[in-house]
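Methods, example record. To illustrate the input and output format used throughout this study, we show the complete record for Diguanylate cyclase domain-containing protein. The sequence lines were provided to the predictor; the line carrying structure tokens was produced by it.
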Amino acid sequence: MTSSEERAGDHRYCTGNIWCVALLGGWTALISVPLIFESRTLTLLTMLAVVAGALTMIGSGLLRHRPAQPLPWYLLSLSAVLFALGTALRDFTGDAVSPLDDICTLAGYSGIGVAATLWLRPRRVRGNYDLLLDSALIGLGALLASWTFLISPILQSRATTLTTMAVAAYPILDALLLTLVAHSVATTTRSETSLRLLHLAMVAVLVGDLGYSLETAGTATIGHEVLLTPLLIAYATVGIAALHPTMASLGAPRQIHPHHSRQRASSIAVALIVASLVPVVGSSLGTVDRVVVSSLFALLLIGVLVRSERAIQRSARSERRAQYQADHDMLTGLLNRSALLRVIDRDSPHWRDQPRCLLFIDLDGFKMVNDSYGHAVGDELIANAASRIRRVVRRDDAVARYGGDEFVVLASLSKQDAAVLAERLLGAFVRPFDLSAGEVPITASVGIACDSPRDTEATVYDLIRAADSAMYHAKEYSLGYAFHDDLRHPHLPAGRPVAASETRSRNWRSNAESTAV
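The corresponding predicted structure is encoded as:
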């Protein structure tokens, strides 16, 4: 970036900071007016000004950022108007219009719920059922706490009327809203600033509703201006969220990877359960309270048990996956060197009292393939060679990639059967490999080392070292395969004669060398 561009960038940064500070300062001053001046008219005007400002900011954000899913923002705007209308009717008029204020408020809840659902639906989450279960546990815990502290006292202190039922429905809607917020928080990435601000706004709505419910239940006496403050904060936060550029991506399909929020969700659910059960322990409950509390607690207990079982299964799967990655070569899927050295101890019943033969396989001319065509083709050749070896050996035989172009087969075989297996392995390399670079002929050399059941001191490493020596002997004399026992005799080297495919391989290497030159 040039110096002029840097100055321009710094200027934009400073301007953005100044704008944010001015915006937050203005909102703070406006929201503080009802707390400073105890005037119902001034409080009503302040609420209307805050709602108008929030709607203006939402409209500005929609015009500036043009989100792919604008419908949720329209629903939030409508919900803001309905909440303001319900609050105005409830707090600034008489009781004659009380059913209308409940209708407006309940309609506002519906708009928020639909908007949250539209934002959450396109999110594809791995392990989605676990996250849904966590969110449901939080919702059930909140519902149990709401019944204990809010709903039951409201129903006991009032006559059963339509208004009472509507007031008692607010804590239930808050529990559902908390469930949606919990699930949204669990699937939110760090870059989604606008969605995080919306979470803050929803929490402010929940705090305000909690205050209203506590006052209705007679549990606490809270001032009217104090109860209105969380709602005003929610309006302002929604407006700021609409101005942030990340608002345009809300509702777009996104792959989410769950993180530690699962643990936080479970902790919150347990805390809600404990907090709601403490007041009812040892108290005399009515029939309705007993039925509701028992039912909710049973659902929570079932949910916690299911969640724990799924966590155990997921942990077991992760442990098996980690163990597989630790024991296997990622290119070929065969055992790696460290797993091969432990294979006899790990599966000792299979190898006990059985003759063992280890075949050490090395690809002839692999370096020339790697140098001529590149490492990608070399890896392709290694993977294809491993596949051919796996098709030849038996299911119980241990097959490993020892390193580079070297493979090892450990099997319970006699010496005669090991020779037959070596012939079959060499035969698997007769046909050229069909790679992305074309047909590549390649041969192999095999070294074999065997021990007997009576030789209890021999380890896999001893067999590998002996078979490796036999393999180099077979490669040096073009034998195809050789036994380590034959190296102890001074006569001519024993093994399989050179195959026609090996002659083709040497010719191909000569051509490759001349081409490289």
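Annotations derived from this record:
DSSP finds 18 helices and nine strands in the chain.
The chain has three domains: 1-121+193-249, 127-154+168-186+251-327, 337-516.
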